Amino acid sequence: MCSPTSLATNIDRERLCIAARRLFTHGHVVGNEGNLSQRLGTDAVLCTPTSRSKGDLQPEELCIVNFDGVAIDGPLRPTSEIKLHLEIYRQRPDVRYVVHAHPPHALAFAVAREAIPQGILPEIDFFLGEVPIAPYRTPGGIDFAKTITPFVQHAQLIVLASHGTVAYGTDLSLAVANTEMIDRYCYILLQALHLGRVHYLSPDSVRQMLQLKSSKGISDPRSETMCDDSLYQLESTCGTWGEAAIEQSIFARRASPSAGGTPQAEMAADVWQSLIERIATRVAEKLEQQGSASRDRAT
Ligand SMILES: [Zn+2]
After folding, report:
1. Cα–Cα dist 237/133, whole Å
2. What's the rounded Cα separation, in Å, for the pair 108 and 110?
3. If you measure from the C-alpha of residue 75 to the centroid of ligand 1, how many angstroms do you get, rounded to a whole number?
4. Fewest C-beta atoms under 10 Å: which of 47, 133, 158, 216?
């Protein structure tokens, strides 16, 4: 009978540490945040320990737990969020890796409870598809792990309200890459918001992208209907928004009369209002400075 330690090879351990370092180096986790794991056979999981930075994790520090989350090997205690990983492994026998991180721009959406919009960047729609936001529960417990249950089958990355992201799949590099992609996408959306509007792709462009996706054998719930509105709606997740207090507000797709009916998300009225007030204040300050400078010259 083999020892628990021998369930994971040195290559398994090394790869998990390299992925952890990549997340840390790119700022998707800081301090001791985040955790990663790999399925080992039918009843064991290799995972990162609790309270250790992902920036300098060593292969021998990794833990092995069984499917009840009980540590069976390793010098340190396993991550306190292992139940989240186990929930995914239970529901998805195809999944080999789970990567949990706190990427800051995706987390901004998770804090704002703003749904991740679709139909804006084709690569995001193609590679990530639907990105649901799971309701908030105190991290660590079984209630927390169960928040992702409605989404695990259909998504490959889930945003956790007021917490972070969890990505999973058969490939470790892809789970890390998807974490990077969602964060970059959310960063771009926030930058576009500064410019004042976000342009949605036309329904025909989204349809073409979905057809391409389906020709590559990648499923997307939007392919089923193909009617204009449902191309942009998060069909399988918007039914759960109420519980999580999720809205599509700032990035809601609206018809803009000024753009000839082109669907686009316009900056919310209160954001405009605050911008206008800030500009007005700065103009008043500038005028005041110029006024006092000319009074000084005159005296
Ligand atoms: Zn976390």
Report:
1. 8
2. 5
3. 21
4. 216
